[in-house]
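Structure in, sequence out. Go:
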């Protein structure tokens, strides 16, 4: 017996300062994790429990790559985010133990077809078409916890063509990485290679063909994406 066609190659992330590869299993994303962003999305930033959506693992895009303007949207948005990568699986993980399950951190850009996301939101439909499209998960090299610890403060910033669009501090996250990992593990068994995009600060906005988008987080470096033509 064999596969009827080749199985897909395992999506990978780069590891900072190394030739090692990090295999990606799933991509979870947290919605509305900064109060000012919740408000700009027309929502109450009260500390209601965080909610999640997902992207396919093969939506990963690496630093320096071009992302062609995706189909069926007139409002592609950037969202700079801290990304936490799980290295040790588990379920029902206590918050006090949650950070022991994180292998490393990276800068991410949760590319979003905002018009399709809002349309889905209004109709009570799933967010997948707004969030989980091809090449929608831009994620830079992962910095091992062994090298950098667990970033919980420091500037998170995004520039488009050199102009600052998002500028905030990781300490403004409503739900911390340890809370997010603990909460997620109560709903799903988390496994090594699971990636969590932890939410974006205020200042989200559109990208157009030819834009160069640079997201950065203090201590985690820069993540550069050029938006290519519609194909
Ligand atoms: Mn996001």
């Amino acid at each position: 017996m064999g596969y009827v066609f080749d199985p897909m190659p395992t999506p990978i992330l780069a590891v900072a300062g190394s030739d090692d590869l990090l295999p990606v299993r799933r991509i979870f994303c947290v919605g509305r994790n900064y109060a000012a962003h919740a408000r700009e999305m027309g929502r109450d930033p009260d500390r209601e429990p965080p909610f999640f959506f997902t992207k396919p693992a093969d939506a990963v895009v690496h630093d320096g790559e071009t992302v062609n303007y995706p189909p069926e949207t007139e409002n592609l948005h950037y969202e700079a985010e801290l990304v936490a990568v799980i290295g040790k699986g588990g379920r029902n993980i206590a918050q006090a133990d949650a950070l022991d399950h994180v292998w490393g951190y990276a800068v991410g850009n949760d590319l979003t077809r905002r018009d399709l996301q809002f349309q889905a939101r209004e109709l009570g439909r799933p967010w997948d078409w707004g969030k989980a499209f091809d090449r929608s998960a831009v994620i830079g090299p992962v910095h091992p916890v062994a090298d950098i610890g667990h970033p919980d403060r420091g500037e998170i910033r995004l520039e488009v063509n050199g102009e600052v669009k998002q500028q905030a501090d990781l300490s403004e996250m409503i739900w911390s990485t340890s809370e997010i990992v603990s909460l997620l593990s109560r709903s799903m068994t988390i496994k090594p290679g699971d990636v969590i995009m932890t939410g974006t600060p205020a200042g989200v906005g559109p990208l157009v063909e030819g834009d160069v988008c640079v997201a950065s987080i203090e201590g985690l470096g820069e993540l550069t994406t050029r938006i290519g033509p519609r194909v």
